[in-house]
Amino acid sequence: MEKILMIRQFNVVVTRTDEYTIKIDDELYNQEWMDEFGKYMWKLEGIEDIARAIAWHQMKNGDDRFLEGFGNITRDGSLPFSMSDFDKNGNWLPEEERDKPAPGLDIDPFNEDDEFNFEIKEEPYNDKS
What's the predicted TM-score (pTM) here? Predict the structure, then answer.
């Protein structure tokens, strides 16, 4: 006899509020830089798009300091440690061999919400197989 699988399906909306201070050196990240960046990565309309990319990365990846296309972003003025700063035995690499920060970019995640609001609604199961 085949077992009947009972599945309940929920739509969940999670809401949280994070606030960041993002510093960008607009002499380094000027229109020429953004045009060159757009040839290989994605089109940036203005410096606000850089701030948006850094904020998005922080929200999705937390303490992961590396942002593709930009490099290692400092957090409140310093570069967080990473496994790549250590050798295979867990010893610090010499300073000159450690990852370097991307120049002119910094994020201060001064308010990352630990409180989450959940709206949960049960809905009819939809078997999409």
Answer: 0.74
Q: Is residue 117 helix, strand or coil?
A: strand
Paired with 78 in beta bridges are 75
- Identify the burial level of 105 via C-beta atoms within 10 angstroms of its C-beta, where 0-12 means exposed, 13-18 middle and 19 or more buried: buried
- Runs of H (alpha helix) within 10-118: 31-40, 47-61
Which residues, in sequence order, are bridge partners of residue 101?
A: 72
Which of the 8 DSSP states describes residue 4?
P
Per-residue model confidence as pLDDT tens digits over 68-126: 999 889 888 877 777 788 888 888 888 888 878 888 998 887 777 677 889 999 988 87
Task: Report which secondary-structure segment, H or E, holds 88.
Answer: none
> Residue 85: what are its φ and ψ, rounded to 5°?
-85, 0
Q: N- to C-terminal Cα distance for the chain?
A: 22
- Please enumerate in sequence order all residues whose Cβ is within 8 A of that of 46, keeping only pairs 6 or more positions apart, or say none: 34
As given in the structure block, the two tokens for residue 31 are 């229109």
For 72, how many CA atoms within 13 A lie in the half-sphere containing its CB? 13
